[in-house]
Design brief:
Blueprint lengths: L4 E6 L4 E9 L77 H16 L4 H9 L7 H10 L4 H12 L8 H13 L3 H11 L11 H13 L3 H9 L10 H13 L3 H10 L8 H15 L2 H13 L3 E14 L2 E6 L1
Antiparallel strand pairs: 1-4, 2-3, 3-4
Helix pairs in contact: 1-2, 1-3, 2-4, 3-5, 5-6, 5-7, 7-8, 7-9, 8-9, 9-10, 9-11, 10-11, 11-12
Length: about 325
């Protein structure tokens, strides 16, 4: 393509960020022969608590009441290589930088109880029932943050805290617990919490678009693209409007966990509803370039962008030029 030079250098580790000015002009999206698009959720979608594998694209079934961890559904416990990246999502599970010494001590007390009884869930439950600690939002967030890698301990504590007089979980506590469950692939249990958040009993729903985005990211982390897409379509079930920014959040989640080809196909297949713009292309381009590390695919996407009539002078964009296999690919104008 005119205006593009590819320079390869033998460097082990090197990263060049080229800032290039672009502007989006009207364009006609291309067609993909075999788009990777899962069917949307049916109008009868219901949040599920039954067991299902991450390879299935079926919608969860009607939930049962939340149970203690030892009675919960048995989701796949296998670890995934990309799950390490999920630590970035722990922003949903962080504490509040406590300054109250009494609160800090209470958190330590509960965490110690949970850890000491990690092999005996009945004993764990009995201990926290008798701890005499006053529950607050700050305490719940802090404890969840400290035990976020032990979903059973976190969930046991979460259920106990929710039953304490004078306290009710807010959106943030629910998000923290859902994030922990999703990270450990306890998706059925996470959906049961979301169903609880819908406020069937209280009439007030705590579910937000961020709630569903957490689930989308967790599905993407285990490469369950079908359910990530279905969760995006569930926005309508929760009476949320799906805008271009929500769609781009889905693309970002897919690319973040190396489902870049699926993200690119999805972008083109939804061209009528969410016309691809500069940001959408940037997400896919960054996925190929920085996350997959494929200069060839990155160049292909870049050529497609140029062919569609982007103005190279006005709109700001970052193009990655990265080291891969001891080579640096530098896209220059």
């Amino acid at each position: 393509m005119q205006g593009i030079r590819i320079i390869r250098c033998s460097l082990s580790r090197f990263l060049i960020i080229a800032r290039i000015h672009l502007s989006l002009s009207p364009f006609e999206p291309a067609h993909f022969a075999n788009p990777t698009v899962e069917r949307p959720l049916s109008s009868k979608f219901s949040i599920g608590f039954s067991s299902f594998s991450t390879s299935s694209h079926e919608t969860p079934t009607t939930p049962k009441n939340l149970k203690e961890p030892e009675e919960c559904c048995s989701d796949n416990d296998d670890n995934d290589s990309d799950m390490d990246k999920d630590d970035d999502d722990d922003v949903d599970v962080r504490g509040l930088n406590l300054s109250d010494d009494g609160l800090i001590q209470d958190a330590k007390t509960i965490v110690n109880m949970l850890q000491e009884s990690s092999d005996n869930r009945v004993e764990m439950k009995n201990k926290i029932e008798q701890c005499g600690v006053k529950v607050s939002q700050e305490l719940v967030l802090e404890v969840l943050s400290r035990v976020r890698n032990d979903w059973e301990a976190a969930f046991t504590f979460f259920l106990w805290a929710g039953r304490q007089p004078g306290y009710a979980h807010s959106v943030r506590e629910y998000h923290s617990m859902i994030s922990i469950l999703g990270k450990m692939r306890k998706f059925d249990t996470a959906w049961a919490l979301i169903d609880e958040m819908r406020g069937v009993k209280t009439g007030v729903s705590l579910v937000t678009p961020q709630t569903l985005l957490i689930m989308i990211r967790k599905y993407c982390a285990v490469h369950d693209v079908g359910r990530a897409i279905n969760t995006f379509y569930a926005y309508k079930k929760f009476k949320f409007d799906k805008g271009i920014e929500d769609f781009q959040s889905l693309l970002s989640a897919l690319c973040r966990y190396k489902n870049v080809q699926d993200a690119e196909h999805l972008m083109y297949c939804n061209k009528a509803v969410f016309p691809p713009n500069t940001k959408s292309f940037n997400i896919v381009l960054n996925g190929w370039c920085n996350l997959i590390g494929s200069p060839r695919e990155a160049e292909r996407v870049w050529r497609e962008m140029s062919k569609r009539g982007f103005d190279m002078m006005l709109c700001h964009m970052q193009v990655c030029c990265l080291a891969i296999r001891r080579q640096v690919v530098f896209i220059e104008f």
